[in-house]
Design brief:
Blueprint: E1 6-10, E2 14-19, E3 31-36, H1 38-49, E4 52-60, H2 63-74, E5 82-85, E6 91-97, E7 103-108, E8 132-136, H3 137-142, H4 146-159, E9 164-167, H5 177-187, E10 193-197, H6 198-205, H7 210-219, E11 224-228, E12 234-238, E13 241-245, H8 258-271, H9 276-291, H10 303-311
Parallel strand pairs: 1-4, 1-8, 2-6, 4-5, 8-9, 9-10, 10-11
Antiparallel strand pairs: 2-3, 6-7, 11-12, 12-13
Helix pairs in contact: 1-8, 8-9, 9-10
Length: 318
């Protein structure tokens, strides 16, 4: 299949410190350094599937910033719109994993370098040759000014007839649901593909009934309303019809990054004009492969792995 499709995303990235041992973080003395961030994960996922990814971001002019930059570049991501800034430390988060498998994430991103990004930094030429723009609610949640930045990017995309995908990716540690809902309602009319969970839609709309979802999609002219429903698979509402695809039955090791992987898989299938159920199946396959591996983006698969997994020609291999 063609690999000449270009996607653009915007957002923060972080150094992720994963605990070597389980238990309360105050007793953990050793961590393993990884990298994460919803938009970076999405860009990696697209790149591994064969799409050309461009990422708009800011990193601290520090060692961690250089680590993320080198890693993204090594994954084939276009980092020409990633700048290093002085006086801001690259964002970090620490994970806590309890003995029963439950976990928490502690963020240290209050002075994220992404705060230096301004509306005037979004230039029209960033979208040259871009076939799809993807944003998430995480970027919107980091700082109130990011809504204006996102709206500038979406306006340029709409003017150029570039489709836009959006994952609300609600992070209530970063803002309230009231603030999130208000921001989302300002951009829904500029969204072509909404990639979300049923629980997130219920938080946003206050109702997750099928008729409510249909009314919502019609009101905002959302062409593809894609619902990620975990073990129940996924659903798509398009042109007045519902399409469904069941989830793949795989051992769940780590769910972090699965939603970002699903988004990358759906965007890939959308750009390659897959039939609705085939598109859902492909995205489900990417998500299934992600949850079978521990880490934020370690499980994001390459195209051949997804194809082999879905076709059933071989077991999951790494």
């Amino acid at each position: 299949m063609s690999t000449n499709f270009n996607v653009l995303t915007i957002g923060d990235a972080m150094i992720t410190m994963n605990p070597i041992t389980t238990g309360p973080m105050r007793f953990v003395t050793h961590f393993e350094r990884k990298m994460g961030g919803a938009e970076l994960n999405f860009a990696i996922g697209c790149s591994r599937l064969g799409l050309n990814s461009k990422w708009i971001s800011r990193l601290g002019r520090d060692e961690f910033g250089q680590v993320i930059y080198n890693f993204a570049r090594g994954e084939g991501i276009d980092v020409s719109t990633v700048d290093f800034v002085d006086g801001y430390s690259t964002s970090v988060n620490f994970k806590e994993i309890r003995e029963n498998g439950e976990g928490k994430t502690f963020y240290y991103r209050q002075q994220s370098p992404i705060l230096t990004l301004e509306v005037d930094d979004i230039h029209e030429h960033f979208l040259d040759s871009i076939n799809l723009v993807h944003i998430t609610g995480v970027f919107l949640a980091i700082d109130p000014q990011n809504l204006a930045i996102a709206k500038r990017l979406l306006t340029l995309a709409n003017e150029k007839n570039i489709p836009v995908s959006f994952d609300p990716n609600i992070r209530l540690k970063l803002w309230t649901i009231e603030d999130a809902r208000k921001a989302y309602l300002e951009i829904f009319s500029q969204i072509d593909i909404l990639l979300t969970g049923l629980d997130e839609l219920h938080l946003i709309l206050g109702d997750s009934s099928e008729q409510s979802l249909i009314n919502f999609a019609n009101e905002y002219n959302i062409a593809d309303l894609v619902i990620k429903d975990s073990s129940a698979g996924s659903r798509l509402y398009r042109n007045g019809q519902w399409f469904t695809s069941p989830a793949f039955n795989v051992p769940v090791i780590d769910t972090v990054g699965a939603g970002d992987g699903f988004d990358a898989g759906y965007v890939y299938s959308y750009l390659h004009q897959f039939e609705p159920t085939e598109a859902l199946q492909f995205a489900n396959g990417v998500g299934a492969l992600v949850v079978s591996v521990s880490g934020d983006n370690e499980g994001l698969p390459y195209l051949r792995e997804v194809q082999s997994f879905i076709s059933g020609t071989k077991e999951i291999e790494r």
